[in-house]
Design brief:
Length: 237
């Protein structure tokens, strides 16, 4: 029917090369690697089919023969980066330690690729390398006596914690880089204003909270505590 949109297609169900004909000039991994390099250098906004094609030395329309949609390019990028998890040969048998180690690996990976936190969703969660990570995560949870639905929920919550913390760290760092003065000066000004407000008596609970602990925020400790609380909750189910 004229004007009817094409049926959706998962990039992984599409053969990388036709059964007949010449060998493709580029592989999906090569295309994705170029896109990842662009995103690492200039941010996600810099990734376009035109720029990736230019970096490869081919025409933009030629690139669409390999990657039909920009969303497919994002999925290829997410899969290439997911290969960096470097999973062990097998879990240790300590599900808490194994899941904690995976969370720290994921956090390190997203710090290396600051744009990646924007692609951490179910939309791009079933690529080959993402599925290997999910399967290994569930394998780590074999000692935990819970149905698989609950185990999937646990993995999703851990990934959510990682993504949220990294996204906040990235946004803070980006804002700091854009300031016309030092981050230390910005912090001093904001803290002076905050203490002025809570000293007014209008915010007694906040005043008590800051009086109890006014030291520097330890984001590493915050991350580990949030992670441990989630693991505690599922471990006691």
């Amino acid at each position: 029917m004229a004007g009817r949109p094409a049926e959706p297609e998962v990039i992984w169900s599409r053969p990388e090369r036709a059964a007949r004909g010449p060998r493709p000039a580029y592989t999906r991994a090569e295309i994705a690697a170029v896109a990842v390099r662009i995103a690492d250098a200039d941010g996600m906004e810099a990734v376009s089919m035109r720029r990736v094609a230019a970096e490869l030395g081919c025409g933009t329309m030629s690139l669409y023969n390999y990657v039909p949609r920009k969303e497919d390019l994002y999925e290829l990028m997410a899969d290439v980066v997911a290969a960096e998890y470097e999973l062990p040969e097998r879990p240790t048998g300590d599900w808490r330690a194994d899941l904690t180690a995976l969370a720290h690996r994921a956090r390190a990976m997203m710090r290396r690729h600051p744009w990646m936190s924007r692609l951490m969703s179910a939309t791009y969660g079933f690529s080959p390398n993402a599925m290997k990570f999910l399967e290994f995560s569930l394998w780590c949870l074999d000692p935990l006596d819970l149905p698989y639905g609950r185990k999937m929920e646990l993995v999703a919550m851990v990934n959510g914690i990682v993504t949220t913390y990294v996204a906040n760290e990235i946004q803070t760092a980006e804002r700091t880089r854009s300031l016309p003065w030092s981050a230390e000066r910005e912090h001093e000004i904001r803290m002076a204003y905050l203490f002025q407000q809570i000293s007014s008596g209008q915010y007694p609970r906040m005043a008590a909270a800051f009086a109890e602990d006014s030291g520097p925020v330890d984001m590493e400790a915050y991350f580990d505590r949030a992670l441990n609380r989630v693991l505690d909750a599922f471990g006691s189910d």
